[in-house]
Amino acid sequence: MIEPVHGEARDAVSEDWYRYLHVISPEIVLLPLLNAPDRVARWASDLEIDAAILSNGNDWGECTARDETERALVDWCRTCGRPVLGVCRGLQVLNALRGGTVETDIASVSGQDHGGTRHDVTLCSPQFVELAGREHIVVNSYHDQGVTISGLGPGLVPFALSDGDVVEGFYHPVEAILGIQWHPERPGAPYDFDMALIGAFLKRGAFWSQPELER
């Protein structure tokens, strides 16, 4: 992002993420990585990271350095078998990297406002319904861009949908790739479901491909 007072380019992550991940597991150490496409894979390897989170922020296509950094990091994670969680923008990034389409104005496509609101989401995959203990959740929503069923990247499977066929969550059936469109670290998220979902993912990777679903 560009800091408005001095006009400096700055890489940043919300402090909410530190607090949220500490609740999931106090042992987690969050290591923000600078936007450096040619170096991020080496840093990830040297730091021996266990998983990557693609967080919120710029729209896809708005910041080339960030887009390419995350592309390189996802490539490294896939090669090394590390889980990748995409949140809000991160879901859109994962979809784009899998050859999917990102809608630039999701409200006009879906007929539903997604900026600074809360709305219903339907869980459409049995394993995720089991994890949540219900078929419907209410999520927060802070995005203008988004992904629809018709624009979902090859190989990705939706597990959560909202009105207008907007994809609110997806996974890869074999690889440890998970995307959610809402913000688990912010108020208004489905707390219990998110704790179970993200905790299982960070601990077990592609838990949905394993025989026993751990709560």
Q: Tally of extended strands?
A: 9
Beta-strand residue percentage: 15-25%
Question: Structural class of the secondary elements?
Answer: alpha+beta
N- to C-terminal separation? 38 Å
Quick check: average pLDDT?
A: 92
- Helices, by number, come to 7
Shape, please? globular
**Strand order, largest beta sheet:** 3-4-9-8-7-5-6
Ranges where pLDDT stays below 50 over 5 or more residues in a row are: none
Write the element-wise H/E pattern from the N-terminal end onward: EEHHEHEHHEHEEEEH
Biggest sheet layout: 7 strands, mixed
Helix content: 25-40%
Rg over alpha carbons: 16 Å
Give a structural overview:
The protein is α+β, with helices and mostly antiparallel strands and 215 residues long. It is built from 7 helices and 9 strands. The chain has helices spanning 15-24, 40-47, 64-80, 89-97, 106-110, 126-132, 191-204, and strands at 2-3, 8-9, 52-54, 84-87, 115-123, 136-142, 157-162, 166-171, 177-180. The strands form 2 sheets. A 7-stranded mixed sheet has the order 3-4-9-8-7-5-6. Strand 8 and strand 9 (177-180) form a beta hairpin. Helix 2 packs across helix 3 (64-80). The protein starts with a strand and ends in an 11-residue tail after the last helix.
